[in-house]
Every structure is written in C-alpha cells, then in structure tokens.
Amino acid sequence: MHPIKVIRKEERDSGPWPLIGEHMDGEPRWAHPDVTVTRVPHIRANGRRVRRDKIDVPDSFGEGVLCLIDRNGSFPSACSAVPLAPNKLLHTGPLDAYDKAKAGIYLIDIPEWTRTDMPHPLGRIIDRPDEEGRVWVTTPHIKQLVKLVRDNHLGAMPAIHDSWTGKANESLFKPFYEATRKARTELVQAGGDPYKAYKTRLSIALRLLWPKRPSQRSPFWRPDWRMSMVAEASVRHWTVAFKAVQERHTLIALRNVDQAIFWTPPGTPPSTYRIGTGFGEVKRKFVQAGETILEGDD
Prior knowledge:
24% of the residues lie in helices and 22% in strands. The protein is an alpha+beta fold. It has one domain (9-293). It has a 5-stranded antiparallel β-sheet with strand order 1-9-10-4-11, with helices on one face. Strands 5-8-6-7 form a 4-stranded antiparallel β-sheet. A hairpin with a 5-residue loop joins strand 2 and strand 3. It is globular and about 55 Å long. It starts with 29 loop residues before the first strand and ends in a 5-residue tail after the last strand.
C-alpha cells in the first residue's frame, strides 16, 4: 500500500505543514523521580563504544528486580488502526469539542497531570509549549485525553484553540500492517540477515512519509501521517503501562515506544503485557538494579 500523493512540493512550506514537529510523537522518555539513571560507557560485541543506562533503585521500593519490557513492532502495529485524514488538512480553527469524524492536528492547552508514578500522557510534547503554554498534538493524543477524562483520570478536556483537520479514516494503513505482520511471522523464526533486512526496509518505508533530511525527496510526503502513526504507538505504549500501574505494579521508566521498565519480583512481568514474538506482544528480561541496561543491538 502506497500513501496517496496529495501534497505538492510548492505547498509544503505553508498551511499546517510548518506547524508539525518531530516532538509531536509524544514519546514518554521518562524515569520515576525517585530512581537514579546514569549514563555509563559500554562496548558492543563489534567493538563500538556507546553509552547505556544504569538504574539505581532506592531501598524504599523493597526487594525486586528490573523487568525490561520490549514491545514488538510498535510502529507497524500502530498502523492497524491509526486515525488519519487521507486528503489535505483544511483549516478548521477553534473547536468547541473534538469531532471523532475528523482527524488532523490540534492546538490545545496542556492538561494538568499530578501523578508521579506515570509520565504525562502527552509525553515530550509538553516540553515545547508556545508563548501561551499551548501545544500542537495529533488525533491519537486527542483521543487518549478524551478517554482519560471519561475515566476520571483528567478533570476536563483542554480547550482546542486551533485545528487543521479532514475526514477521519482508521484503515488507510491496515493493508500495510497486515503485510508486515505476515512477513514478520515468516521471518522472525528464521532470524539472521533476512529478518534484519525486513526490519531495515520496514523502517525505511515508514520514514518515507517524512524523511529526516529535506534533501531526501519523497512523493509520499505526509508529516501528519508520520507523526500520527508514531503518536498512536506512543499512546498504546503509555496505556498498557498505565494499566499495569493501576494494578499496583511499580513503573521505573517509560522510554520510547519500545521499552518499559518495572520493579517486580523475579520472573513476574506485569499481567497487562502478552509475552510472545508477534505484533502486540512483548519480550521481557530481568536484570538486577545497578546493572547496565543493554539495548537490542547489544
């Protein structure tokens, strides 16, 4: 499935497009305020020197180990039902309320979040407000706030001061999701170079929606689709972690869309996660506090 080519090159510096930024992904990048995270040197198997995290947990947390949760295919999984506007975004201005028949970008006040055991639902979006304390968000985060208000975790929906929207569609990327899921099922067992090539090509395909370098031209250029897809992955990541916290699990860190770290008894990951190799499932690993937290490439 190829994205619909609708945004001409001469139009990309006007309208809603300059309002969209990489920080709109809403990735949490959060650590519990009572733990200490230190960046330490680490040497990969290939000899490359990198830096990784070391997490020290205070005695007040009781006995336990660090449970590392690694989500499988966060971005392609998000493509299964990400709300997008297939056509151009139109300027719809201030809105009295979110219209679920629309999708796009919204300028809102930052809602108050007083919990210290979970990061803010908007993640790093809140780190770059405008002069009036407002931020631009995509539809997945608006839908998340609506649900949090409905479930009494937020007092009220923030005001929508401006918007660019179009008719919503949640199945635009579903064929892509189905194809990548099928390919993963076939290749994950084999592993090796074919699986690495699959992951690389998948990353390139999704990045073509909005290449990092302006010089990398793409006929599929849609930054609103790109950021909505990453925001959907971030929302799903945050939501499952929040369910675990509500079941009295202790969240130590919530990183990007792939990794969460809990403080748990040995061998007992939070039940809100499904263990496996497929989309929507996670891998888990247990390490002692103070050990270096390695990553997939290590």
